[in-house]
């Protein structure tokens, strides 16, 4: 039980005592000179786990995606992604502003374009059109509510892209949530992806950092991009060390977050004024619609006053994310608060 139930994001997780100890004791060196042993250890560990040749530590998921995309593409190309992708919505148009890339958003049901959608979005070789430079996938899918796609679905899209000579980047900020729920290894999801970005500082609880993994040549290009963007850090083993703790000890417990999200979603789905599709609640994210006009703002305001923090993602939708710093009791408390606030609202037609 915590003083405040913070359901705004799994980015709010605090480092564990073991992480803090690892930070204090980390062996470090200058990572721009590739002399930080702890960073090298984390990069090698990540590459191995994802079945790739090399890894690169970056400060954030946003930098991982940006460096990831830039290292595959040339200005003037087009990248294909889901219309609700994080790269499209929440990365300040980095691909356009810095990469000179045009985005080609595809409308999808669960956040994952089908092989047919990708096939028809890939540009023909023609004087008038931009060349398709990259296909980006996201798993789990944030704005679709933590939905999961299987390694086979990724492979099917990957094969279409590769048949046209187009590489694939996977935004796997929460790929370990997908792996835990489907009981698969992350390397299976990575097999047909040329690069994967994953975050240490979401459900895994590390204070900062992401890894970008791919082939040796690709990671060498990414290292240059990271330096160009000012992301070459020096004695950054102090951040890699808690990342190693995250990767080695924090993955399996994600199942608990998924169970808590389900409990929360089931409770919410009973409430008047709330519309929630339980089938979409597959991992640690719960998105629901609030039907009474102004209801979403009111919920944010009133839950905060009752020490439950939630996040509004558009005028009528709320997102809740479970994580290691929210326990079962906290979920029950949050549900109590929602019950109190929705009392008297008209029932939504589900
Ligand atoms: N997502 C954050 C916000 O930016 C919305 C959150 O609270 O969920 N890919 C995906 C799928 C993400 O959800 C995020 C973070 C990122 C990339 C970027 O990671 P950071 O925040 O480390 O730059």
Supply database-style keywords.
single chain, seven-stranded mixed beta sheet, Aspartate Aminotransferase, domain 2, 350 residues, binds ligand TLP, alpha/beta, 16% strand, Aspartate Aminotransferase, domain 1, four-stranded antiparallel beta sheet
Question: Nutshell version of this structure?
Answer:
This protein is an alpha/beta fold and 350 residues long. The protein has 14 helices and 13 strands. The protein folds into 2 domains: 5-11 and 253-342, Alpha-Beta Complex (Aspartate Aminotransferase, domain 1), CATH 3.90.1150.10; 14-249, Type I PLP-dependent aspartate aminotransferase-like (Major domain) (Aspartate Aminotransferase, domain 2), CATH 3.40.640.10.
Explain this structure to me?
- 40% of the residues lie in helices and 16% in strands.
- The strands form three sheets. A seven-stranded mixed β-sheet has the order 2-8-7-6-5-3-4, sandwiched between helices. Strands 9-10-13-12 form a four-stranded antiparallel β-sheet. It has a two-stranded parallel ribbon with strand order 1-11.
- It has 350 residues and is of the alpha/beta class.
- The protein contains 14 helices and 13 strands.
- α6 runs parallel beside α7.
- It has helices at 17-25, 37-49, 61-70, 86-89, 94-97, 115-121, 151-163, 175-182, 186-190, 216-228, 237-249, 254-269, 295-305, 328-342, and strands at residues 5-6, 54-58, 78-82, 102-106, 132-138, 168-171, 195-199, 210-214, 274-275, 285-290, 308-309, 311-314, 317-321.
- The structure holds ligand TLP.
- Ligand TLP binds next to α3.
């Amino acid at each position: 039980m915590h003083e405040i139930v913070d359901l705004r994001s799994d980015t709010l997780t605090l480092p564990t005592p073991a992480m803090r100890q690892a930070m204090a004791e980390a062996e470090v060196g200058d990572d721009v000179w590739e002399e930080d042993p702890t960073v090298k250890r984390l990069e090698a560990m990540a590459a191995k786990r994802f079945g790739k040749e090399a890894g690169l530590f970056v400060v954030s998921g946003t930098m991982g995606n940006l460096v990831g995309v830039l290292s595959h593409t040339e200005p003037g190309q087009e990248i294909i992604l889901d219309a609700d992708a994080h790269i499209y919505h929440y990365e300040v148009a980095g691909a356009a502003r810095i990469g000179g890339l045009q985005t080609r958003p595809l409308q999808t049901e669960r956040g994952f374009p089908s092989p047919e959608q990708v096939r028809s979005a890939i540009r023909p070789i023609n004087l008038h059109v931009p060349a398709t430079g990259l296909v980006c996938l996201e798993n789990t899918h944030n704005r679709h509510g933590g939905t999961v796609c299987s390694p086979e679905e990724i492979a099917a899209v990957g094969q279409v892209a590769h048949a046209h000579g187009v590489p694939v980047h996977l935004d796997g900020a929460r790929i370990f949530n997908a792996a835990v729920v489907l009981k698969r290894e992350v390397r299976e999801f990575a097999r047909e992806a040329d690069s994967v970005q994953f975050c240490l500082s979401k459900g895994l609880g590390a204070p900062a950092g992401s890894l970008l993994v791919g082939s040796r040549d690709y990671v060498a290009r990414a290292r240059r991009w990271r330096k160009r963007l000012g992301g070459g850090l020096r004695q950054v083993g102090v951040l890699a060390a808690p990342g190693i703790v995250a990767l080695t000890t924090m993955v399996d417990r994600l199942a608990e977050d998924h169970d808590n999200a389900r409990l929360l979603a089931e409770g919410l789905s009973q409430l008047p004024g709330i519309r929630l599709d339980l089938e979409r609640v597959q991992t640690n994210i719960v998105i629901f619609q609030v039907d009474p006009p102004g209801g979403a703002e009111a919920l944010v305001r009133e839950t905060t006053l009752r020490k439950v923090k939630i996040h509004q993602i558009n005028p009528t939708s709320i997102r809740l994310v479970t994580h290691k710093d929210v326990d079962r009791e906290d979920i029950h408390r949050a549900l109590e608060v929602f019950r109190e606030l929705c009392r008297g609202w008209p029932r939504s037609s589900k």
